[in-house]
Specification:
By secondary structure, the chain is mainly alpha-helical. It has one domain. Helices cover 58% and strands 7% of the residues. It is built from 3 helices and 2 strands, in the order H-E-H-E-H. Strands 1-2 form a two-stranded antiparallel sheet. The longest helix is centred in the last third of the chain and has 32 residues.
Length: 114
């Protein structure tokens, strides 16, 4: 595996997608009491899969959309429980991607004798 190759680019793209999702969760949580606020959802996995298949993972796109979940009487549809769980799951996935990148760089360091 070469640093900057398809594998590393895919991991970097996944990190960008996960970072965007984290920001959306945080924004949703910050607006849990805002009347008429609609939660935001970020998706990127399908785009990443297609970008990897094309051999260009850095071309991955992000899709941000407003949730169509039912709203409360105040017009807000943020569910704090769902956002907190999503934020935690996202953090675990981010950590996994970071570990994979660190492993790749560790192999490079080892091959250089450092």
């Amino acid at each position: 595996m070469i640093i900057g190759g398809t594998h590393t680019q895919a991991l970097g793209s996944a990190l960008r997608g996960l970072d965007a999702r984290r920001k959306a969760h945080e924004h949703n949580i910050a607006n849990v009491e805002t009347p008429n606020f609609r939660a935001r959802e970020v998706s990127f996995e399908g785009s990443l899969k297609r970008a990897i298949a094309s051999g260009r993972p850095s071309t991955m796109g992000l899709t941000t959309r407003r949730s169509v979940e039912a709203t409360r009487p105040d017009g807000n549809n943020v569910r704090l429980d769902r956002e907190v769980v999503g934020l935690e799951q996202n953090a675990l996935e981010y950590r996994l991607m970071t570990q994979a990148i660190n492993h790749a760089y560790g192999r490079l360091r080892a091959s250089l004798g450092r």
